[in-house]
Write a structure and sequence with these properties.
globular; 4-stranded antiparallel sheet; GAG_Ulvan_Degrading_Sulfatases; 9-stranded mixed sheet
């Protein structure tokens, strides 16, 4: 196959920070996603798609490589994707590719954009050219030179002041229309040249802070002043700021308005694709990377936990081999890597040589049982652990490494309020989870492990490994034992549990280069 063979186009859309139960296509009681409801008429709608982590960098790295976070290594402890081949690189000989986003983690700095023929970042902290294109290497040179770095620090300081204004509500504007415009131009150019294309976009409207366009704010959050509600999750999480039910309701109204805006922009893109005659030949993936909490478990945002509102994400796929409808089978979001290869690869038939699909000896081998397009999807023919009666494919795994960036911000907010954080708390804890559709076991590094019977307790309110253990039935105990054993087997395949670290080791173990990059992006002070 070469770039001119037809029928292999891919549009991959990530709605950043969108939780499943806030989409009307997933039965939310507010009309947030009418366009996606129409899309569902021709797409597979998945109820049990599980992200491998609760935040952007490791999730995108997993979707781009087919690897778990512990395999690709991209986390806040090491905020780069290194020594891994991306999906775009694997498709470089067969597809023209582009990556457009307004997320600061999806830039040449983190290597998530490696392999894309074109990429652009619409991040508000500083002009996007500092984070993408030819100026990215110039910016790196400035940062690596002690003298020039003073100039770079000044530019970043100015950029952060601009960001404080543009994100304040008065000057805030969505970058999504620009992303859609550029996507249309890219597709049109590829089509004009007769080439297959792979277009990835990440839309950030639903990420804090929420300042939706007026027309949607009036519909979903009438009378709410976005500059008066708490838009800093760290203030709430550390205890410096209280948020009552009414304020959380206002925040969720703004959040829904942001989702509605993204849906309208997707409608514009999808309608244009139909008019241009490129819709039928394109596999379309629409998903979230993670969700958001609004006070559940006394948390706000998407850090310090791996509860289902963060990791059980929406995912919809349009493909001729997938019948439209609802699918309840659990799968892992890293399976999308294999699914895209299956659709876009040189030999997607059942007897294909897996190596022929990846085309790169350093890339993760294509696994047919991880492709959503195959009848034997998730049939691994391997027990979840020795002696298990369930297949490993029935389990999904989530990994959360030390949240260096959020933790530093949390500590700063706590210190300013005269609050001392407990270092033996979830704020300082790494986490892993083993999940099946009816049960979930969470391994915590610094606090007690947790277990939830999801079929009876989808809100994860009754911890049967904790104070509610006395109420666990024999079936609950068996499910807990099995899910913990599956997680332990996963950890063994990953090299065991976490290494022991001292309280201050996480930041000190990071390279100076990594800390400098996070400072430049405005995540560290």
């Amino acid at each position: 196959m070469d770039r001119t063979d037809s029928g292999r186009n891919v549009l991959f859309v990530v709605l950043d920070t969108v939780r499943k139960d806030h989409l009307s296509v997933y039965d939310h009681d507010r009309p947030t996603t009418p366009a996606l409801e129409d899309f569902a008429d021709e797409a597979a709608v998945y109820e049990q798609a599980i992200s491998p982590a609760p935040w952007t960098l490791p999730v995108h790295a997993s979707m781009f490589t087919g690897l778990y976070p512990s395999e690709h290594g991209a986390s806040q402890e090491n905020p780069y994707l290194e020594d891994a081949t991306t999906l775009a690189q694997s498709l470089s000989s067969t597809h023209r590719s582009a990556c457009y986003s307004s997320n600061a983690w999806i830039t040449p700095y983190t290597h998530l954009t490696d392999g894309f023929d074109d990429q652009d970042n619409f991040f508000e902290v500083m002009p996007g050219d500092f984070l993408s294109g030819p100026l990215a290497s110039v910016w790196k040179t400035m940062n690596d030179n002690d003298h020039l770095r003073k100039v770079a620090d000044y530019l970043v300081s100015v950029g952060n002041k601009i960001h404080e204004y543009t994100a304040s509500g008065e000057g805030a504007d969505s970058k999504t229309p620009e992303v859609i415009d550029k996507t249309q131009s890219f597709i049109a150019d590829a089509e004009a040249d007769g080439e297959n294309w792979f277009q990835f976009i990440n839309l950030m409207d639903a990420h804090l802070p929420y300042h939706p366009p007026e027309e949607y704010a009036e519909e979903f959050a009438p009378g709410v002043d976005s500059t008066e509600v708490c838009q800093n999750s760290k203030e709430y999480n550390c205890g410096a700021r209280d948020i009552d039910d009414d304020e959380f309701a206002d925040l969720q109204g703004l959040y829904d308005a942001e989702i509605r805006h993204m849906d309208a922009q997707l409608d514009r893109l999808f309608s244009w694709m139909r008019e241009e005659g490129v819709w039928e030949d394109t596999m379309v993936v629409v998903c979230a990377d993670h969700g958001e909490l609004f006070g559940e478990h006394d948390l706000y945002g998407h850090e310090f936990c791996i509860y289902d509102p963060l990791v059980n994400v929406p995912c919809m796929v349009k493909h001729p081999d997938l019948g439209a409808g609802r699918y309840d089978e659990q799968f892992e979001m890293l399976d999308l890597y294999h699914t895209v290869l299956d659709h876009a690869g040189t030999a997607p038939d059942a007897d294909a040589d897996p190596a022929a699909l990846t085309r790169d000896p350093q890339a993760r081998d294509f696994e047919a049982t991880r492709s959503l397009l195959r009848d034997d999807h998730r049939t691994f023919d391997e027990p979840a652990y020795e002696g298990a009666d369930r297949d490993r494919g029935e389990y999904a795994f989530v990994e959360y490494y030390r949240p260096v960036v959020e933790l530093k911000q949390l500590e700063q907010k706590a210190s300013s309020a005269g609050i001392t954080l407990d270092e033996d708390s979830r704020f300082y804890s790494r986490m892993r989870a083993g999940r099946r559709v009816d049960a979930k076991y969470v391994r915590n590094e610094r606090i007690a492990d947790e277990f939830y019977r999801l079929k009876d307790d989808p809100g994860e309110n009754v911890d049967l490994a904790g104070d509610a253990r006395e109420h666990a039935s024999d079936l609950d105990e068996a499910a807990m034992e099995a899910t913990e054993a599956a997680l332990a087997a996963f950890e063994e395949r990953r090299g065991g549990e976490w290494k022991s670290v001292e309280d201050d080791d996480v930041l000190s173990d990071m390279s100076d280069d990594a800390k400098d990059r996070l400072q430049d992006l405005g995540y560290l002070e």
